[in-house]
Structures are given as C-alpha cells and as structure tokens.
Amino acid sequence: MTGNALPTRTGDQRVTRLRVIRSEWTKLRSLLSTIWCLAATVALLVGVGVAYASLRVARPPADPSAFDATAVSLAGVQLAQFAIGVLGVLFITGEYATGTIRVSLAAVPDRAVLLWGKAVTFGVAIAGLAVPAVVVTFYAGQAILSAEHLDTGIGAPGVLRAVLGSALFLIAVGLLGLGLGALLRNSAGGISALFGLLFAPQLVLGLLPESMSDAAYRYLPTPAGAAITAVHSDPVTLGPWTGFGLFCLYTAIVLGLAAWRLRHRDV
C-alpha cells in the first residue's frame, strides 16, 4: 500500500513578529466591521466638524477673542472615539465569537506576541486614517469659519498639537477598546465596558460634593485623554501631554491585564 507523499515545505517557517503583523492586517482589512466603523469615524469627524462650524458662522460669538476655532473644527472627535473604540473591541472579540481564536493561538503559540501583533497592526491602521482625517476636518472647518473671520491657522500656538493630538487620542481609545475586548472576550461586554469607562466616572463624580469632584475630575480617563485635543488648557484638567500620558497608562494597564489573562487562561 502506497500513500501520496506530501509536498516538502521549504524556507523559513518561523513565527516572527512581522509575520504576525501581516496576518493581523489581513484579518483587519477583511472584516466588514472595519469598513463600517472607519466610515463612521470619518463621517463623524468631518460631518460634525463641518456642521458645527456652519452653525457658529450662522451664530457668531459675542466675543471673538475667546472663540476657539480649532475646537469647533474638531468637535466630531468626541463622537468618533466611540466608533474607533468599538472597532478595537470587535477586532478581537469577533475571533472569540466564531472560534477562530483557536486557530490564531495555534499558529502563534506565544499569546503575548499575538496580542502585541494585534495592537501594533490596529494602531498603525488607525493612525493611517486618523491623521489625514483630522487634518482634512480642521481645514474644512476653518474654510467655513473664515466667512466670519473666525478661523485660525495650523501654525498658531497649540493648534498643530491639538490637531495631531486628536489623532493620537483616537488611536489610544481604539487600543483601549482592543484591550477590553481581549480582557472580556465578549463583544457586548467589551463595548459596554468601553462606554462605561469613558462615561461612568464623570456621572459618579456628579453625585459627589463639588470640592471632591473637581479634584478628581482631571484624573478620569476621558478628561485626561481629551486634554491633548484642546488648544487652551482648562484649569480643571491636566496639561495636554500629562493628561494624554495618564490615558495611555490606563490603556497600558488594560492591555497588560488582557495579556495576563490570555497567557494564563484557556480560550
């Protein structure tokens, strides 16, 4: 009895970080949720920014010197963060829902490397979309505001940092969603946790005495992270880079917990 010989595989078949990234990129661009969430992100960024700029032109401020033209253009960032965060959750929970996570873990035995590959792939992909999107949104808003001479330039103090900082904030929120999805392994649970982490602390502080809430507000995830998107620092929030650094710390903690669970708990 003779059997058919299997073809001999040639070349280096080791699992490397670059190959993991390539694999994760294939997964990300093949997901239908990627198309919808990224489309929603762009629509919210540009649509809300343009709509709000048009509204402010129709209703000019009484004191133009206190008008923040950059904040008007980037008003959609606060809504777009949820589309990016949801995509981060779905990027990994989709594999748990379909059971394909077992295939991924079989192909990449080092589970930390798998999560690292997902984070790098997702972060780079979001950066490729967010940076041009916020720049286009800024210039579109300023073009509308120029009708009432309310516009500002990208070279004005703090403006470039706020524009690019908006993209950084979106990337960090997306990675936070990815970490929550990997930690909870459930789409509904991950999305609920994302919304809860970004919104619930502010609601809880609203029930506390004003002296306590004002002291703690600046350290909450959303106010801390969003500080980098503002041209002028708010007295009740941390500085732009300090606040963003704190938000990145929150994200790193969630990703660290997700990596620990991925390595120590079965699928």
TrEMBL record:
Instruction: Report TM segments.
Output: 31-52, 72-92, 113-139, 159-184, 191-208, 241-260
Top-level taxon of the source organism: Bacteria
Q: Name one Pfam family in it.
A: ABC2_membrane_2
Q: Which UniProt keywords apply?
A: Membrane, Transmembrane, Transmembrane helix
Give the GO molecular function terms. ABC-type transporter activity
Supply one GO CC term from the record.
Answer: plasma membrane
Could you tell me what this protein is called? ABC-2 family transporter protein
Q: Which organism is it from?
A: Actinoplanes regularis
